[in-house]
From TrEMBL:
Annotated spans, Disordered: 1-22
Family matches, as InterPro entries: 4Fe4S_Fe-S-bd, 4Fe4S_Fe_S_CS, FTHF_cligase-like_sf, Helical_ferredxn, LUD_dom, LutB/LldF, LutB_C, NagB/RpiA_transferase-like
Claim: Transport is one of the keywords in the record: yes
Domain 4Fe-4S ferredoxin-type: 314-343
Keywords: 4Fe-4S, Electron transport, Iron, Iron-sulfur, Metal-binding, Repeat, Transport
Source species: Marinobacter salarius
Gene3D superfamilies per the UniProt record, alphabetical: Alpha-helical ferredoxin (1.10.1060.10), NagB/RpiA/CoA transferase-like (3.40.50.10420)
UniProt-recorded name of the protein: L-lactate dehydrogenase complex protein LldF
Amino acid sequence: MSETTHGSSHHSAHHIDVKEFHPRARAAIHNPQVRQNFRKAMDGLMTKRKSAFEGWDLETLRDLGANIRMRALASLPDLLEQLEQKLTENGITVHWATDGDEACRIVRDICVARDAKTAIKGKSMVSEEMELNHYLEEQGIEALESDLGEYIVQLAEETPSHIIMPAIHKNTGEISQLLHDKTGTDLSNDVEYLTANARLQLREKFRNADVGISGVNFAVAETGTLCLVENEGNGRMTTTVPPCHIAVTGIEKVVPNLEDVTALLALLTRSATGQHITTYFNMISGPRKANEMDGPEEVHVVLVDNGRSTIYQDDELLDTLRCIRCGACMNHCPVYTRVGGHTYGTTYPGPIGKILMPHMVGLDEGRHLPTASSLCGACGEVCPVKIPIPDLLVRLRQESVDGDKLHPAKVRGHGAKRSSVEAMIWKGWSWMHARPGLYRLGTSLGARFRKLQPGKIGAWTQYRTAPKLAPKTLHERMKERGQ
């Protein structure tokens, strides 16, 4: 795992220590409300996904999606240049950002140039990655989330717990109490009432915002088109009502042509929320023209690297960049389902976060992430673009202990993490298992003196019973049976 840049160096009060995974996991496991909220939500999403693909040749579609993403990544540098050219021809200003800090400064400079004091935001995980909201607040620019889930999370002064459904960790009662405390709405479990009140609160913000900020689901190189997938209409409002629209996106979101979007869209919506298609699919190809009635006067695109080009140089870890941010791997992950997104302390939680975030925060800080998995393989089975997540987890696990043997010169402050005692134990284990006679003798002695075995074996027996050795080995039993 090669060296990467940190996301953003401006750490706010919202920043969570990545290294505190285990204490947070224990707290989540012992919080019945959190477990109930996630279990109910994840079960519903898994059921919806399954029914949404009924009648489809899912494996063929997944192969198509994987091939589209791999083909795009194979020619990523050329596609990015083509995208920049087409966007520029369409009247869109293109900016390049090496990391989150630079991307934040670019957004700030655009706001300052327009004397903008308020920004309304559509949903964008890259902006979360950049910690853009907190940066803009420090600069005296109000940034308000308009996605209902993100709005709730922002009111609660929390971070999203899921990349598709940011407030999935809260139930209706908790959301009602939050809206009552923060905005004065009546306490109610009527979802329509709560949603309508949030809509009223946000509508004026859309009308008066100086700048609209959004993410991008797919950027089409051939036509210079930005595609946004959403359900609430807030994305369309964010990108059309304010006089200036700023789209921020990772450099990996580019695809060659519009035809590629169709298969990826079919996979994304069904994998994410179990919908055949979302309520809104926005295609943005430029600012408002002279003969048009609505739309922004200016459109800017900020193409964010933030460690992606380093990932791109690794033939194996490159697969991480295929991700279309559907969240299906989280919905099916037994670990994520039990501990929730905030436990990870990262922008991207769950299986995709375990393989993506070590690139962004460094494997030293995020070394617990690849181990937060049972390696059941569910994430790999449901990934719509067939990212081999379990294989990458194993690769990162090995690097977190042994150091990066593929890129030793590029590693930032992490080498072998295994203690000398642990290294000796594993060498002894390997040596004995390579010698059948010694192995048989060792297992035989272990069976004979099993009562001397310790009742506790480190962390393994913290939640499990220590394994009991059989009184006789399999070979001894087979000999007794004359086989």
